[in-house]
Amino acid sequence: MAQIVLFHSAYGLRPAVHAAAERLRAAGHQVTTPDLYDGRTFDTVEEGMAYKDEITQDELLRRAISAVAPLLTPAAGATAPADGLVYAGFSLGGALAQNLALADEHAKGLLLLHGTSDIRDDAATGIPVQLHVAEPDPFEPEDWLNAWYLRMRKAGADVEVHRYRGAGHVFTDPDLPDHDAEAAERTWAVALDFLAELDG
């Protein structure tokens, strides 16, 4: 069983995020789904990105750190994860998850769905990383992904990249135009195997 923190995309904490968390819980994992938008959700990426810009990237990162802090230093009587958190996220949430995972020396793994983030030159990590991304994806262009992969490998991460030709950007959300049912099911099958291996 992994303890997973799952961050939503720029669309907010939509039903698809809750459904994903339930899928992970059904596989035996503990899952926390922080709401970084204070209950706001959006139907278009333009609205979601505008709200993200209004909050600012720095404030979103601060909120993400605050959401994770209790999991790393639990209240009296609770127990911290024995071997670290698994950080996960959708699109923007993946970028936040990556930033937190690379800053956490006890992180157990990183599951990225539709999104990545830049990597500092001095980053160092040995965690397993799995990325699921559309091909092509306007938010994750080929040149960016190639550079991201090389920099993650240079940092010491064990990286897998799974690409889904013809899928939309956030193809795991059945309520968005991006949705691709076949790609979504393949993603979850591979992701669940990845999480099971982290537990092995």
Keywords for this entry:
single chain; about 200 residues; alpha/beta; Rossmann fold; six-stranded parallel beta sheet; about 40% helix
Please sum up the structure shown.
This protein is α/β, with parallel strands linked by helices. The chain is 42% helix and 17% strand. It has a single domain (3-199), classed as Alpha/Beta hydrolase fold, catalytic domain (Rossmann fold, 3-Layer(aba) Sandwich).
Question: Could you describe the 3D structure shown?
Answer:
This protein has 200 residues and is of the alpha/beta class. It has one domain: Rossmann fold (3-Layer(aba) Sandwich). Helices cover 42% and strands 17% of the residues. The chain is built from 6 helices and 6 strands. It has a 6-stranded parallel sheet, with helices on both faces. Helix 3 packs across helix 4. It is globular, with a radius of gyration of 16 Å. The model has no long low-confidence stretch (mean pLDDT 94).
Q: What secondary-structure arrangement, pairings included, does this model have?
A:
Elements: E1 3-7, H1 15-26, E2 30-32, H2 45-55, H3 57-72, E3 86-90, H4 92-103, E4 109-113, E5 128-135, H5 142-155, E6 158-165, H6 181-199
Parallel strand pairs: 1-2, 1-3, 3-4, 4-5, 5-6
Helix pairs in contact: 3-4
